[in-house]
Amino acid sequence: MSASGPTLSSEYASATALQIRIDAHDHHSEHPDDPTGAVLSLLELTGTENLADIGCGDARFLAQIITGGHRGRVVGVDTSPAMVAAAAAIPGVDATLADAEHLPFADEEFDRTTARHMLYHVPHPDVALREFRRITRPGGHVVVTVNHPGTCAHTRELVARHARRYGLDPVEEMANSVTSSTLPDMMDSVFGNASVHRFDNALVFASPAPLLRFAEALFSFCGVDPDSPHRAEIRAAVSAEINTWFAAHPGQAWRDPKGYIAVVATVN
């Protein structure tokens, strides 16, 4: 394990853990969960806008926009070379390696700017928000999504408890204090307006195996490096506790509250 623990680079060196988390939300949400659809509805696209998605991940969001017939320029930005490569493989996506605090675009270059579930990882989120405003034309929209504080806290604490037995704790790079409680005021401070749309839900697991897969996909966020010499032991302990819980609660499901907000700002 590195001296500093997990990093964003190690977490997003491949899309595996991200895909597991996405699958969990797709298949184990208590209520239908469509964060992509939620953002698309708020963007009010006509099909011709130039759009930048900051922290695009594997760009499935942009792929859906293009598949829907969008004709404007579509740009995906990420700090991970693996994610940029995945985005570049999607026809029609202009993939760019850059960080949110130093975007390589001209002023007012885009009609729409999105930043979905990524602002937690930015060292200076206020700087990133100002960059989003700078690259978006007057009258254009910026949509930012972040989770509620304590999202999936039950599962995260389960992993963190076993990680702490080996002296492992989350590192600052993996998350800052941006949540649904703090983002609206931050957006209002930068843009002078902020429209908040709230989405509440929960993950519900009826059996141990999918919960263990999801829990392991949270390891980096709990300080467990992919190369940690204790990773196998921590996984075994988490698995044992999960199995014990289901054995002690026959017929019950593991329920972990979650949710997020989408904040829309218009550039004046």
Describe the protein.
With 268 residues, the chain is an alpha/beta fold. It has a single domain (8-150, 172-205, 253-266), classed as Vaccinia Virus protein VP39 (Rossmann fold). It is 37% helix and 21% strand. It contains 10 helices and 7 strands. The protein has helices spanning 8-11, 16-27, 35-43, 60-67, 81-88, 125-135, 153-164, 183-191, 208-216, 231-248; strands at 51-54, 74-78, 93-97, 110-116, 136-147, 195-205, 254-266. A 7-stranded mixed beta sheet has the order 3-2-1-4-5-7-6, with helices on both faces. It is globular. The mean pLDDT is 95. This is Methyltransferase domain-containing protein.
| Order of H and E elements | HHHEHEHEEHEHHEHHE
Q: Portion of residues in helices?
A: 25-40%
Overall average pLDDT: 95
Shape: globular
- Poorly predicted tracts of residues: none
CATH class call: Alpha Beta
Number of domains: 1
Work out the helix count.
Answer: 10
InterPro entries: Methyltransf_11, Methyltransf_Superfamily, SAM-dependent_MTases_sf
GO molecular function, one term: S-adenosylmethionine-dependent methyltransferase activity
Pfam families: Methyltransf_11
Domain Methyltransferase type: 53-144
